[in-house]
């Protein structure tokens, strides 16, 4: 695994003290995490971010004053580089797709184990996102459902190389760069290069956008 860049500052926003304390204990056991700050309210978190912007925020969707979606909108409007990972009890597609479209970097259920949390945190720090099979399935179902107003035009289908299609299919299946590299007998750097080409060719902002593009153009793996 590539080295995590620099000491990491993590923030937690959740109104349950016991849950925050458990997360803090897990995060502080990771060698690259330097500091962990807790906030029970959005106002408290906002003040902390203005004092020192965290590298990653672990965000609960259900808050008493500001819900997770509104918190995300406000935070990313002021701090566009903030990396947000949602931790939520809600696993329905509508919550996952809404938050991914708002710009969060991953979406995990609150009953995730310690290993999945570590994996998500490291992936977000290294690649900017953590793309799980659950996120992939939710986005695919969202774009496949008929809507009352279908868009009149879709982005033109770009010309992808056979290798780019192989990488795209595995991204849609929730594979990580290291897994794709192993399966296709490529270096991780080469896989990241193909992923960047896919983003540039399709205009997708992230891997979630690549899944949406693939579903819209009939490029999903069978």
TrEMBL record:
Pfam families: GerE, Response_reg. SMART domains: HTH_LUXR (SM00421), REC (SM00448). The modification 4-aspartylphosphate is found at residue 60. The keyword S-adenosyl-L-methionine does not apply. Keywords: DNA-binding, Phosphoprotein, Transcription, Transcription regulation. One of its GO terms (biological process) is regulation of DNA-templated transcription. Residues 153-218 form the HTH luxR-type domain. It comes from the Bacteria. GO terms for molecular function: DNA binding. InterPro entries: CheY-like_superfamily, NreC/VraR/RcsB-like_REC, Sig_transdc_resp-reg_C-effctor, Sig_transdc_resp-reg_receiver, Tscrpt_reg_LuxR_C, WalR-like. CDD domains: LuxR_C_like (cd06170), REC_NarL-like (cd17535). Residues 9-125 form the Response regulatory domain. This is Response regulator transcription factor.
